[in-house]
Amino acid sequence: MSTAKKTVQKRRQPRRTLTGPVIQPIPGESLTSWIGELAHQQGFEMKPLLRELHLDRLGGLAAAELRLSDPVVRRMEKLTGIDSDRLHAMTLARYAGNALPHLPLFSSDGVAVEQWRKGAWFHHSQARWCPKCLRGKGGSRWLLRWKLPWSFACVDHAVYMVTECQACWDTVDFRHDAPPERTCENWTDEGEWAYGLQEPCGFPLSMCQPVPVSDDAVLTLQARVNEWLEGTPTHEDRQLVALTAVLIPLLSPSMMRRGDPLLRYVVRSPRGTAQRQRKGRRPWTDSLRVAAAVYAADQVLGREYAATEVADWIADLRLLDHRRRSWHMDVTELAYGPSLRPNPYIEPLVHRGLITLGGWL
C-alpha cells in the first residue's frame, strides 16, 4: 500500500452514529416527519442518516413510508430504541385495511406500487396541513393521516385543512426523499424580468391562516372518519365513507342546502365544478369538497334510503342543477380506491349512467 493511500485512510473521519436519547415520534406522526426531526436533533445530513438507518435502499424514504421491511425495522429499533409497533404505525401500511386497500406487500415492487398509486386515494406528494398543529410545542411535526383525503378538518383546532400556499396560491409538493418542507418551495416569477432567474416562494407553511369550521357537525363527522381510519368503525361509519367516496365527484348545490355556508359556496363556485381541469388534480384533493361530501352523505343516510333510492336522489338533484356530466371512474380507481369495501352505491350509479367505467388516457 502506498504512503499516500495510508495517509488518506488515517485522515478519514470516523463514521458517525446516532447518540441517545433520540427524539420521540408524536402520536400519529408520519415517518418522513420524524426522520426530519431526527436529522435535526442529531445534526445529521439527510443522506448519511438514511444510509445509517438503511432507508436508502429499495426505493428510499418514499417507499419506506409505504411499508417498512423487517430487516430495516430491526436496524432502526436497534439504533433508535423506538419499538417496531411505533415504527410501523408511522407508515401508510397502518391504513392498509381500510383507507388504502390492496397496499402492495413489497414497496420495492415498482410495477405493483405504480399500478396501485394510480387508483389509491392518498396524496403521494401533495401536502395538506393544519398550520396551528405545525406551530405546536413539538415543532413542525406532520401527521400521517394528512396524506389521506379523508383528513379535511383538524378536530383539535376546529379549522379546515390547508391545501395551498397562501402567498403564491399554488399547491405544495413534497420531495420523495426529504422531510416535509417548513417553507413553500414553489418557484415564482419574482425577479424574472430583472435578473432572468426565478426564486422559491419561501412562505412559512405554519403561517398560513386556516379557515375556521363554523358548523360543529363537520368536526363530529371528521371524528367519525378518524375512527374509521384507526380501524374501529361501526357499520354506519362504513356506510358514511362508502357514500362519501361516490359523492365527492358528483356533488351539486342542491345537496348542500344546509350546513356551513362555506361548503355550499365550494360546491357552487367554479372551484368546485372544475376540479378535474385544475392541473390534473382529482376531485378529492380539495379538503373543502371532501368535507361537503361527508356532510351531504350524512344527511341522506339519516333518511335511511336504500342504495337504489340514494342513486335516484343523486340523479334527481344533479338534474335539477343542470349537471349531466358523468364521473369517469378508471378501473384502477375501482380496484384500488375506496370504492371496494364493497361499496353498495357503485352499481346503482353505474346503472343510471352517473358513473362510467373506463381507463385514463
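(the above was protein one; protein two follows)
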Amino acid sequence: MTQLSTDTQEMLDSLQTAVAETLERKRRLGQYAVFWENGKPVFIGEDAPHNPDDTASDDQQQAKTRH
C-alpha cells in the first residue's frame, strides 16, 4: 500500500469526517442517502424510494412546478 504524505492524509481525514457528519445529519433528519455501488445508485434510509427509476420522473415534475 502506498504511504500518503502528511498533507494528503489530513485532506483525506477531513473529507471522511465531513462525509460521516453529513450522513449522520441526514440520518437524524430522516433523509435518505444515495451511494454508488457496482455502477448503480443505492438508496439507503427509511424514506428511500423503493424504485430508484421513479425519482427521475419525480425530480422532473418538481422542476416543472418550480418555474
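Reviewer note on protein two: Residues 6-29 form the longest helix (24 residues).
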